[in-house]
Amino acid sequence: MVFLTPRPDPALVAERLGAVATAPLHMVAARLHEVIDEVLPHRALAVFTEDCTGRPQKKAGDPVITERITIAELDTVRRLVAGGEPPGSAVIAGTEHPVRVYDAPTGAVLVLCEPGDPTYLGAEAYVRAVWTTAATRIQQQVAEARPDYLRESRAASSERLQVTAELTARHETDLETLLATLRGRDLDDARARVLATDMAAAALVRVRAGSDLVASLAEEAVSQAFRRLRDDLRPLSRYGGIQVQFIEPPADGRALPGEVAHAARAIVRSAVLLMREQEDVTRIRVQWNCDGTNLLISMRDDGPGFLDQGRPALRHLAARATALGGHLTVEAVETWGSEIDVRIPLDPPDTSGTAMHMWDLGPRETEVLHLLVAGQRNRQIAAELGISENTVKFHTSQVYRKLGVTSRAAAAALAVDAGLGFSDSASAHVARR
């Protein structure tokens, strides 16, 4: 074991922390891998966080591992850590590997697969500081609910749930068929039949549990989402001199997709603060409701009634709603106050299915096309999807062939022209090219 120095250069530490803190969500894992590997070499790493509903797992490193890591494996590691038993080894990518696991105050976990020897005595504290910074920043970026994040998160959630549902249905059918066969009278070896039946039943339970886990990561009960909002705004009522009235949604209302819950809380928080800035505002009412198809948000103040929808702050809030296919309206009546109403559909538009059927794209090819339109290069796409650059190149070539184009710009332009719901920034990127 070789230690280069007992204490790193403070300027270098600050630089590395800054690099992690400023990383966009799709680059967090790659940035962590690069920074941590300098002090604690490892083969691959994975981040698991329930905050980011679009892609709760973020991976970087050896694609032999990163391309096969599952949410269920990372959730098992997280449960062990939460129970006070951080494992020294774990099943990652279907194989037992030595691991080093770090938790965070946000509930996220970092898993280093096949870690080596640290390069200096302070490596452990350094890694924990870098990881805590990254986990906090992930939570902040999700809470901010920027329009580009909401678009990407909705697309990823929709695709993941669709693929998971198909796989689960296929596995359930296979296992149920196996159980029916083994329970038949044609198998003479009773002991083998009992053993095989037990194994198949256990496998069926695991498949269904995995499906439930994925669904729970992608959705949030409407009552729980509203309770989190109320907790966020409670200090404003207590110390801000404003009475915030909460009218809760029905307790049995339909669960909210994660990106809708994040966007709704971010919109309400910003709108309440905006209303509070007006003179003579003493009361703000916040109401959520669900009609089975949409989340309906209403915020009303008792101020002067001068809120203008053209204000930059309100345009930004409207962009969040628009990113999820919804809309925001403002009605202001002088001396009566202002009201902001927001409607956000709970189901995403079927743009991914359109792309898949229009050009016969597979789920991964659709995902690569989405990121390509967003202006990401092969290295960024590889980091975002947890695959190798060579795999990205393969999928890109398949996309080109199916779209009948020969360049990234042409593929992006064709996708945007088809109206597949990609972001405005992506359209601007295509135009610049």
List keywords for this structure.
Beta-Lactamase, 433 residues, five-stranded mixed beta sheet, Heat Shock Protein 90, disordered C terminus, 12 strands, alpha+beta
Short recap of the structure:
The protein has 433 residues and is α+β, with helices and mostly antiparallel strands. It contains 16 helices and twelve strands. It is globular.
How far apart the termini lie comes to 50 Å
Tally of structural domains: 4
Radius of gyration: 25 Å
- Quaternary state of this entry equals single chain
Biggest sheet statistics: 5 strands, antiparallel
Shape: globular
Q: At CATH's second level, what is the architecture of the largest domain?
A: 2-Layer Sandwich
Total helical segments = 16
Query: At the first level of CATH, what is the class of the largest domain?
Result: Alpha Beta
Describe what you observe in this structure.
The chain is an alpha+beta fold. It folds into 4 domains: 135 residues, Beta-Lactamase (2-Layer Sandwich), CATH 3.30.450; 69 residues; 124 residues, Heat Shock Protein 90 (2-Layer Sandwich); 82 residues, Winged helix-like DNA-binding domain superfamily/Winged helix DNA-binding domain (Arc Repressor Mutant, subunit A, Orthogonal Bundle). The protein is 54% helix and 16% strand. The strands form 3 sheets. A 5-stranded antiparallel β-sheet has the order 2-1-5-4-3, sandwiched between helices. A 5-stranded mixed β-sheet has the order 7-9-10-12-11, covered by helices on one side. Helix 6 packs antiparallel against helix 7, helix 6 packs parallel to helix 10 and helix 13 crosses helix 14. It is globular, with a radius of gyration of 25 Å. Keywords: DNA-binding, Transcription, Transcription regulation.
